[in-house]
Write a structure and sequence with these properties.
Elements lengths: L1 H40 L13 H36 L11 H15 L6 H26 L3 H25 L2 H12 L10 H15 L2 H8 L2 H6 L4 H23 L5 H11 L5 H25 L8 H22 L3
Helix pairs in contact: 1-2, 1-12, 2-7, 2-8, 2-10, 2-11, 2-12, 3-4, 3-5, 3-6, 3-10, 4-5, 4-10, 7-10, 8-12, 11-12, 11-13
Length: about 350
């Protein structure tokens, strides 16, 4: 009798878990809306919602803060979702968008463009170079994978090596750059949204098709998380999906770097935070990461804007300063629990 009731009990537990996940997703959506409200209010001059219809708000809210907030949300969601995808694909909890060298590839292309143009190239040219750099590293990884039939572990190690090599190129470029070039280089390398306005709307729009497509791939990521052999036995074409996912991550990383420079720890910390909160199914973990990544990066951007009265902190410094101790605490907490 208990065995006959087992499927019914499992179905009830599954439905309860889904309801629980939907409630938590609703809370994350509310958190994102509150973070967006704070981001629109915050600045050198705080404008509360009651004043959003004033003439002053036309400039500060709708022309300056809204496009910046949309860019921050898009980049945060993209980096967090890319982190989830990479951790599932490579079965490595330390995987994140910069691990395969894709972000550093975009950074190298930006650095070389700044040096070649002596800091005078328009923003759209630099953005295009960042995207091309990320896609070039991605195509190189895919070509090596097809040529030598690399498994996930070897592809991951090659990505790490490419990232180190790209970092060395950027270090040499900064060392030999002039003072004018150095200022622009440091902006891209530390990350920041200070120059974002409606002119970058094409970059924001370029993120969303790939981002939404990845958010809907939870079922396939569940299969990938089982391992290569079980996923293949369950009918998943591994080569095709590995190439698609690596290309998608490369696109998200390249566009994010073009939009705001290199931003660390978002793709690493946020998926772990959500897993500790109980999101284990990728069908809910992916949208939860998009919502949490967007909201947390919005709050980090607010801190970057209001911490100093006369200057703005690079958002990459804020995320690294907050993310590193948080990640260490999470690891120690998991160890104390016996994980």
């Amino acid at each position: 009798m208990p065995a006959a009731q087992s499927p019914v009990n499992f179905s009830a537990l599954e439905q309860r878990q889904r309801r629980h996940d939907r409630h938590r997703l609703a809370w994350l959506a509310l958190f994102l809306l509150l973070a967006l409200g704070v981001a629109l209010c915050a600045g050198e001059r705080w404008l509360w919602p009651a004043y959003w219809g004033s003439d002053e708000a036309q400039l500060f809210i709708w022309q300056l803060r809204l496009p910046r907030a949309l860019a921050v949300m898009s980049a945060g969601a993209a980096l967090a979702v890319a982190g989830v995808v990479m951790q599932a694909q490579f079965d490595n909890p330390l995987a994140e968008p910069g691990l395969l060298g894709v972000s550093n590839g975009a950074g190298v292309a930006l650095v070389l463009a700044v040096l070649a143009g002596h800091g005078l190239l328009p923003v759209w040219v630099l953005s295009g170079c960042a995207i091309l750099g990320a896609l070039a590293v991605t195509c190189l990884l895919l070509a090596l994978s097809r040529r030598y039939l690399l498994n996930n572990a070897r592809l991951l190690l090659i990505g790490v090596a490419l990232g180190i090599a790209c970092g060395a190129v950027m270090t040499w470029a900064v060392y030999f750059s002039s003072s004018l070039d150095l200022r622009q280089l440091m902006y891209w390398l530390m990350g920041g949204f200070s120059g974002v306005d409606w002119r970058q709307k094409w970059l924001i729009l370029a993120l969303w098709p790939v981002l939404l497509w990845l958010v809907m791939q939870g079922k396939r990521l569940n299969l990938l998380a089982l391992g290569e052999i079980p996923a293949r036995q369950l009918g998943l074409p591994l080569v095709l999906w590995r190439n698609l996912l690596v290309a998608a991550v490369g696109w998200l990383a390249g566009v994010s770097v073009a939009l705001a420079g290199v931003i660390g720890f978002v793709g690493l910390v946020i998926p772990h935070m959500l897993r500790l909160a109980g999101f284990t199914d990728h069908r809910t973990l992916l949208p939860a990461s998009a919502l949490a990544g967007a909201g947390i990066l919005l709050l980090a951007d607010v801190l970057a804007r209001v911490t100093l009265a006369s200057a703005e902190l690079p958002i990459g410094v804020v995320t690294s300063s907050l993310g590193a101790p948080l990640f260490i605490w999470m690891l120690l907490r998991q160890k104390m629990r016996g994980g």
